[in-house]
Amino acid sequence: MRTVNTWTGREARALRLALRFSVRGFAEHLGVGIRTVSKWESNGGMRRPQAAMQAALDTVLARTTAEEQARFDELTANSIMVGTGRGTARVWSNDEWIDDLDRARLSASQQNFNLASILAARWLARTDSGRLDDESVHLRGRTLMLLGDVARDQGRLSGPGSALSAYRQALQVFGDLRAERRMAQVELLLTVVHEMSGQLERSAKSYQELSADPRLSVLDQVRARLWIGTALTKVPESAGIEKLTAVAVIESAISEFEELDEPDEWNVGHQKLALAHLALDRCDDAHRHIDIAQAAQGAGTPLQNVKLDTARGHILVSDRETRSEGLATLERCRDLAGTHQLFHQVASIDRIIGSIEAQVNP
């Protein structure tokens, strides 16, 4: 049985990974705080646990199975290290990276963009010049995707620090890894950015291609089909052919979401269908489908609520009899969107209000 003369954060991390513990689980196993384990690992070979913990780590190592011992030996021989710029070494854990990525994704889904950006960006900075294994490179790509999502939801579509920039970097990372599924997912996200930027015909064509792309999951393929309809709905001054096609495509996607048991996507589909009917001046159908979406949504996140109420407000302002109610709804949505840094939604609401004001006061 191998012994360790002096435990440092590097060996403690290797033992944790060999035992397949999370940071929290390892801390509980040793009877110490999570921060204690995190400090050991963040300082790598420069951090030595106290004498009592040296003995505790010896005991844990002595109780490992042969398989766990083999993993420990391999990990201590092949520690993942990155220079700190001061001649020292820092060790990070991919498990911690995954934990932070999960936290960042949850924060982003709740529109806590500042925390999501901090959690994601620190890993990019920490690993920028490191020697990464394939798993770490893959995590880097996923982190870039998340930062792209945050920038997209905030309306930062192009330029430095934008969704377009982050997604392109992620595409390069996954391309180097030949991770076909991830590449297709990023291509789909890039198409969303193109649509949001007003490149409607281009995005509709890309959605069409991706809707039959075998690299994507069935769910992502159906999302692409739904978004064909949203892009066609927005095409200005077109013949009714595109709008009718949009309705048919969206209806088909809604049916598929129901078959896949995806209630959130099904809900969004009805919102999109309501707007597609509105584009054809079918106000009764638009009201019917937005009511379906409203009834199904529940509490919702700020972004979900803003999107739903913006769609409802858009429908209401299109009718003279409900225009005042619609404008009030849109103003409330605008305030909520601004509070949560949903600046693309703010711009969309401003365009709707501006178009109505232009009709009333030509």
UniProtKB/TrEMBL annotation:
Task: Give a GO molecular function annotation for the protein.
Answer: DNA binding
Which species is this record about? Kribbella jiaozuonensis
Gene3D superfamilies assigned to the protein according to its UniProt record, in alphabetical order? lambda repressor-like DNA-binding domains (1.10.260.40), Tetratricopeptide repeat domain (1.25.40.10)
Which branch of life, at top level?
A: Bacteria
Q: Which InterPro entries match?
A: Cro/C1-type_HTH, Lambda_DNA-bd_dom_sf, TPR-like_helical_dom_sf
Q: What is this protein called?
A: HTH cro/C1-type domain-containing protein
